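Sample intake — Uridylate kinase
Collected from: Paenimyroides tangerinum
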Amino acid sequence: MKYKRILLKLSGEALMGENQYGIDPQRLSEYAQEIKKIHALGVEIAIVIGGGNIFRGVAGASKGMDRVQGDYMGMLATVINGMALQGALEDAGMLTRLQTALKIEEIAEPYIKRRAVRHLEKNRIVIFGAGTGNPYFTTDTAAVLRGVEINADVILKGTRVDGVYTADPEKDPNAVKYESITFTDVLAKGLNVMDTTAFTLSQENQLPIVVFDMNKENNLLKVCQGENIGTTVY
């Protein structure tokens, strides 16, 4: 395996499947099976999941809601998604722990770095919920922060597109995909990989990011085995 310990970043929207909002149990089950393939090979897996399928703080703020209040609501949405994913992974026979940046001790452990690493060493999948626990930070930033803290080898950003393109491939048919690209080039070309805070944190800590299509069967496995899937930002 190319990567021993990964931080998998999933968007909340990914869980909607074909629905307009909420959680599609079928999609959850598919993701659990994909994750199981790499778990069976001994990859240590941590996961951060967004909350956009339930609530987006930024969207709420644009409609007049208090931004801080909206962001906390978004954090709680990521906890709901984390619980759903935890259930799907455990149904598929894996051991998991959900840790949250906000204390919700009845349903999750508080985030403690040493405890998270210990779980990973014991082959448990650790899901990090509630973002960084602070408003104004995205779950992308939470993913990179946790990845740095647990000494992950890579951030795997599972999306609907199969990599980083010169333009939005869903809008521009002439967009060309990069096999790999440096952090510096991404910034210079103004490409949209992650938000700037997350991206800078990744760059400063020399933590590579692989952007790939999570919805294609075996892609996660191929990435972990070092196949040229998606785009590597280094």
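Post-analysis note: The chain is about 40% helix and 15% strand.
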